Give the backbone structure.
Amino acid sequence: MIQLAALLARPILGKLPLPEAAKDKMASVNQLLAGGSGESWIPLARQQATLPVKTQLRGESASVERGERDHDGKPLRWVQFEWPALQVDDCTFHKVCWRFYQNGLICLELVASKDAAGLDVRDLVGHGIELRDRSGFLIGIWSAAFAIQKGTDRTVFHAAAADDFQPLRLHFDETAEIQGGIAFRI
């Protein structure tokens, strides 16, 4: 309803001058969402709490894979969690894949699309993971988001961050087989 009112108000309000203070506030919000980079995304980072987003879908990972690779001549273990396809309003999450490395490197692959039928021209789509150990202890919460345009078909997004987070290092070998996550749209 609010989106429809905003759409109808644009021709009228668009002709009114926007105060400089409002322009500065809008620029600050865009800068915050961009992580200071000037881009339209929220960088992958550890959160203190689950993001308070209205339009979200909670779900559990569908598969887990564990592996090892050589890094600087030493074995480096990793664990990867994948989610099934999800639909959040007019945005489809075709693939969500989180990978955590023993050394603190965290990667997210998100494949999403936004149909042309919705009123919003663009959305910020993202995913968050609540990483837990086998006992249910919350190790940490990580999330990232990306801007997607209306009518976009299967865009691949990637984010990575190194997080020297002691609980992740201590509980890495004890991560549960199924993890909780949140697909969201802002």
In short: Residues 1-16 have pLDDT under 50 and may be disordered. Residues 39-185 form one domain. The radius of gyration is 19 Å. Helices lie at 2-13, 20-33, 166-171.
